[in-house]
Amino acid sequence: MHESLEPETPEPEAAAASGPDAPGWLDEDAGPVVRPYALTGGRTHYRGDEFDLVALIITRDDVPADEDGSRARKWEPEPEHEMILSLCRNPLTVVEIAAELELPLGVVRVLLGDLLDHSFIQVRRPAPVAQFPGERVLKEVIDGIRAL
Fold this sequence. Notes:
By secondary structure, the chain is an alpha+beta fold. The protein has helices at residues 12-16, 36-39, 79-87, 94-101, 105-117, 135-147; strands at 26-27, 31-32, 56-59, 92-93, 121-124.
């Protein structure tokens, strides 16, 4: 058995799919692909409390002044932040925001954290499970309805 000493040439599909100019780097409908970490400045987590999937996010109309009392904000939202602010004029859950923007949930949580840190949004967290009625109470309600 004799092995060839010539270097193997990659498959045409593999060669075409690599490199920054390759078609695999573009989505024809969306334009150039932006990696999620580019939207968050490389951050992968929000340093505050974790955003629950069903927490309601609402854009604040009364953005408070900065520490020095000025209304001119020192932090300007990026376009993705602006899209979230626009969407959340009516309350939306975190998962709905991610679906609307077609962004990964982790990216949306980081962007929401930025907006929360700068008081652009309010977060209404879901009620803890302990506040919901127990199974016994629900069965009694069902029995009462059936008795009518």
